[in-house]
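Contributing new complexes? Match this layout with zinc ion.
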Amino acid sequence: MNEVLDKKIIGIDLGGTSAKFAILNQQGKIQEKWSIKTDTSNDGQLIVHDIIESIKQQLELSELSTEDFIGIGMGSPGTVNQANGTVTGAYNLNWKNPQPIRQQIELAFGLPFFIDNDANLAALGEQWLGAGNNEPDVVFVTLGTGVGGGLVSDKNVLRGAMDAAGEIGHLTIEINGYTCTCGKKGCLEQYTSATGIERMARDMADAFKNDSSLLKKKIENGKTIDTKMIFDLAKENDKLANKVVDRAAVYLGIALGNVANLLNPSTIVLGGGVSKAGQFLAEKVNKEMQHFLFPTIREYTKVRIAELGNDAGVIGAASLVLNELLKK
Ligand code: ZN
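Output block (do not edit by hand):
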């Protein structure tokens, strides 16, 4: 038996409200998982300390030692500097200055440590064991309160010159469109995030003349609307809801078509809260995207819904460790 192949990996998925942990084998199977609350007080200075303590406790509980592991992988919000193992600009963690995360964690455990942006790791997770079916070229798009993305090319994350590649949410899909939080106009995020879809619905309700729409009635009566309601009504053939969903699908079609023309992924995976609309959304986006694909890749590029849910991050963290160790 090959002892190295039996060793495990620790995956960490750090977020603004909780840090999720998993112990995985080298096939990406989760053997144990747990989570702790993220304590963002004191400029987030307790976060890494809490992560280290939590891992130590879990190893003791599971009667494991650092000898049983080949490495630790971690996803973090903010801008991750791969070379230095630091994170900057993670505002939901209250981290204002660069955080020397690799240094702290390697010091605590003496294991190789690799870190990446959380969206990149979700992309790696879905590429490996989720909707990407371990195909080497997969694009992951998360449609949540914002729109983010991760580009996996030949099984590796494309990071770009400033570790800033994959900002699919800020692709321009409408000239002089809604102003984005980034300062630019017409970004995809303003139309296809949960908040973007809800705003489109309210704006489109004003100009919509057909009174038979329940969505229009709800908006006019000042009722709160959400993305799930819009999709549910669209599935029931509500005219306004369908117009809103179709428009979101066109914008996604333009953006993903351009991404596919550039990167030629086999699969584009849709994740995040909006993707709970499921096959209904995937089919519409896939249909629209076909109009924007150049002939060679038309009919070939698939749009699929993410499969790993909250586990994508820790599974991606394990994938990162394996990828990076393989390069060494
Ligand atoms: Zn933007």
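Reviewers usually confirm one structural detail per submission. For this one: Residues 170, 180, 182, 184, 187, 189 surround zinc ion (CB under 6 Å).
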